[in-house]
Amino acid sequence: MPHNHFMNDNKLRKNAIIFFMAAFLILSCSKTDNQKTSSNIGAADSPLTETPADAQRAQDLPDLAEAIARFSREMVDTHPDSEAFVEDFLRWFFGEAGIPDRIAVNVATSILESPAFFMEFFMLLNQDPYTYYLVDKQHSLPEGYEPGDLVPITAGTYRVSRNDLTLRRIAAQALQEMAAAASGEGIVFEIGSAYRSAAYQVQVYDREVRTYGKEIADRQSAQPGKSQHQLGLVVDFAPIDDAFAKTPASQWLRSNASRFGWSLSYPEGFEDVTGYRHESWHYRFVGKDLAAFIDTYFEGIQQYALQFIQAWQDQPEN
Predict the structure, then answer these.
(1) pLDDT of amino acid 89
(2) What does pTM read for this prediction?
(3) Which residue ranges does the chain devote to CATH 3.30.1380.10?
(4) What residues are paired with 166 via a beta bridge?
(5) Architecture of domain 129-302
């Protein structure tokens, strides 16, 4: 549950945070313009070269916090509580969203240097909300949720393991586009699983428990209501096992899937973050813009980006 006054206050406080973020963007643009002007003045005398500092632009957390604190002190005349607002935002950013330090520093530094992050972020919030809906062991789908625009997916540029597979229309179209591109490079996908109803997910989970026991089942199968498959935006590429990771299709997806709006949900080495072991075959359609956002700011880790969005939305509106 939210525990500081930033997270517990009302819509006015959330709007104030947006105001301060806008101020960051304005200052960032001004800073960038000034740097360009300074660079142009000295360009004739000394060519621009990349220094080691350029590769280490993300400062450690205390330095970043101090930079934001300095900015907030400059805003005191505008709003008497500005420093508290910004410091609470920083705590929320690193805490409530569950973002590790290395990514948090990179994102926060990006916010300070350029308006791009928040421009992209607020645009993402206008797309289909279920493309960024967080579904994991702690966050369930709305009770009784069923997509209203499911369409059959049939063999063509890709193969299907069963004839009853369906996806939401936007995901089916994106899958077709991606499969066509892969086919042009000699890669033919086989789809082993797609949308699952709550009732079918009960069967899948119970079968896993009977076969492997609950401890192992919970590492590789979601309980009903907590499965991404119920979104109608997920495909499991066949074979649905660890052998898939070594296939040409898997290699192609790792390099290209995000260009078509698809994101690997359960990457290797992130079980403590996602709650599930590595599933090289499990891809979720999030849309091209969100997929690029995940790659650019969250090191390609879907879970971190969705946690960030969820934490923002969890701020109370009244």
Answers:
(1) 63
(2) 0.77
(3) 129-302
(4) 152
(5) 2-Layer Sandwich (3.30)
